[in-house]
Amino acid sequence: MRCAACGLRTARGYGWFNPARPVLVLRPACSRRCMDLLCRSWGMVDPDAHEAAAIAAAGPLAGEYLESIGKADLALLSEAEWLTFLEVVVTAYQDALVRRLEAERTLRAGAAGALP
């Protein structure tokens, strides 16, 4: 399914509907940028606590990668180094987000099981 905003990329993980209309029609989006275009007057949702923590967790791993190749200036990275840098950042973000969400799910399941 193509993004409803740009029409170029495959929609992944984002979807928008107008809550003011009685018929809810989901408009898929491929990114936050396209999601913002779809929302327009509604604006974009700020990162939640899990997303903010995942962003913070990705930073040190990005720094470790740059130290491992001996470069600090992103403009000096080769194409392969740049792509690896992006992969490190995105993977670290996703892994941290999954860990936090799974930990929260485990806590909720434990709390639900503790109830009489």
Description of the structure:
The structure is a single chain. The protein has helices at 32-39, 49-69, 79-114; strands spanning 14-16, 27-29. It is mainly alpha-helical. The protein has two domains: 1-44, no CATH class; 49-114. A two-stranded antiparallel sheet has the order 1-2. The radius of gyration is 19 Å and the shape is flat.
Cα shape: flat
Determine the mean pLDDT.
Answer: 85
What is the overall number of helices? 3
Strand content: 5-15%
Give the strand order, joined by hyphens, for the main sheet. Answer: 1-2
Radius of gyration: 19 Å
**Tally of discrete structural domains:** 2
Helix content: 55-70%
Terminal CA distance = 45 Å
In N-to-C order, the SSE pattern is EEHHH
Q: What quaternary form is this?
A: single chain
Number of strands: 2
* Structural class based on helices, strands and sheet pairing: mainly alpha
**Major β-sheet annotation:** 2 strands, antiparallel
Low-confidence stretches: none
Task: Give a quick set of tags describing it.
2 domains, flat, 116 residues, 56% helix, 3 helices
Summarize the structure.
With 116 residues, this protein is mainly alpha-helical. Helix content is 56%, strand content 5%. The longest helix has 36 residues, at 79-114.
